[in-house]
Amino acid sequence: MKEHHERFDKGTLTKLSLLRRYFGAAFNIFLNRFPRITIVDCFAGPGSDREGQPGSPKILLDILQASQEAAFQKRVPVVAVFNEANSKKYQKLKILVESFHLPKSCFQVETRNKPFAELAPGVNSYLKEKGGASFLFIDQFGVKEVTRVIFQKLVEIQACDFMFFVSSFHYRRFIKHSTFQELGLLTSEEVEDIKPQHVHRKMAEGYRRWLPKTSRGSRYYVIPFSIKKNSSIHGLVFCSGDPMGAETFLKAAWKEDPETGEANYDIDNDQIREGQLTLFGGMQKPKKLDMFEQELKDRILNGEIKTLQEAYLFTIETGCLPKHGKQVFTSLFEMGKLADRITQIEYGLLKEKPIPIRLTEKHVKD
Ligand SMILES: C[S@@+](CC[C@H](N)C(=O)[O-])C[C@H]1O[C@@H](n2cnc3c(N)ncnc32)[C@H](O)[C@@H]1O
Predict the structure, then answer these.
(1) Residue 110 counted as domain residue
(2) Whether residue 75 is found in the same domain as residue 188
């Protein structure tokens, strides 16, 4: 097993930064929406790298500690489980976890020393407790621990968001190896046909195909974030059945990557530099945003998207944020094609009756 004797590289720091941004926001949202919360760090490591830079367990515990007052006031019990299979690393992890003195009235913090595949019996009862929310961080080496069976079981758990690491580069390189063939995520042809910088995006398509053919699977979010580590592409995949979960992750991702919300490198070869003007004086726009705006506009004008709620869901499904969707509404209104100025498209609308998008006469004539 690899040791944590090295310094975290830039790619690892991006992964951990995304975890911090996402979970920092998600935990507060969970506290406001659910009566109990479970967090499982399935591949926790010892807690830090050689130079003391915090790894996932410390990041998660810091966030729990910062919100302990809120958890206490809202009386939301929180279970946090930290697992590490390697005994030496587990001993360090245990010391780290015990150094946090979270109030026992609210927090139940546990450590486990098990291989991931054997973790389920000890945590399933927490994950499946009715009404609760959970988050699992699955920082596997390689790709093979998140099998189709495990993925589908996690998808079926209510209000369970999970995020896992995938060595997409290795999958592409060793696709013909029996372990990768067994996983059955993508075919060799699919992998060979794609550009190396898009391999992790393609992996997410493979996981989407694993979604069960139930109503749950039909509206489920599988969102990739590609990470360059040294010169290879790997990444995180975030999974949630709730648009709010997806939006929370996307907000973190767009903070990490303001151009596409999707990578720590120029994934679409946009070659945009901050503040750079185009030939005609406007700011350069990433291809992804350009395509999103065009598609949302077309769908609104041709009547495929009829309500604000549908526009919100389309925005999130495309990996964009409500503010990007709102821009499309503003420009359509300014072009005289919409009857109403829309000030917000947001998650809260999903609780209301469908709000129709009203097109103008000008739109009909055009
Ligand atoms: C990528 S590292 C995790 C790093 C950690 N999340 C952090 O932020 O520092 C993967 C960890 O999983 C452990 N590990 C490897 N195989 C495992 C398994 N089957 N079950 C649980 N832990 C495992 C390794 O010892 C290693 O510490």
Answers:
(1) yes
(2) yes
Q: Are residues 228 and 150 in the same domain?
A: yes
pLDDT tens digit sequence for 3-52: 456 899 999 999 999 999 999 999 999 999 999 999 999 999 999 999 99
Tokens in use for 80?
Answer: 């946090």
> What whole-number distance in Å separates Cα of residue 56 and Cα of residue 107?
18
Which residue's C-alpha comes closest to atom 13 of ligand 1?
A: 43
Q: Please count the other Cβ atoms lying within 10 Å of the Cβ belonging to residue 306.
A: 15
Is residue 89 in contact with ligand 1, taking CB distance under 6 Å? Answer: yes
How close is the Cα of 88 to the center of ligand 1, in Å? Answer: 12
Residue 84 in contact with ligand 1 by CB distance below 6 A: yes
Tokens (6 digits) for 216 = 């749950």
Using one digit for the tens of pLDDT, what is the confidence trace for 189-241?
A: 888 888 989 999 999 999 999 999 877 777 899 999 999 998 899 999 999 99
Instruction: Judge whether 316 and 285 are in contact, CB under 8 Å.
Output: no
Q: Of 188 and 295, which is predicted with more confidence?
A: 295
Ligand 1 contacts CB of residue 139 (under 6 A) = yes
Residue 94 neighbours by CB distance under 10 Å: 16
Q: Is residue 262 in contact with ligand 1, taking CB distance under 6 Å?
A: no
pLDDT value at residue 278: 60
Ligand 1 centre from 184 Cα, in Å? 23
Question: What is the C-alpha radius of gyration for the chain, rounded to an integer number of angstroms?
Answer: 22
273 inside domain: no
pTM (predicted TM-score) = 0.94
Q: Can you read off the two tokens belonging to residue 39?
A: 């967090």
Residue 84 alpha carbon to ligand 1 centre in Å: 6
Is residue 71 a part of any domain in this protein?
yes
Report the residue among 53, 84, 143, 170 best suited for mutation to probe ligand 1: largest number of ligand atoms under 8 A from its CB: 84
Containing domain of residue 331, as a range? Answer: 287-365
- Does residue 242 sit in the same domain as residue 346? no
Q: How far does the centroid of ligand 1 lie from the alpha carbon of residue 97, in Å?
A: 16
Number of domains forming the structure of the chain: 2
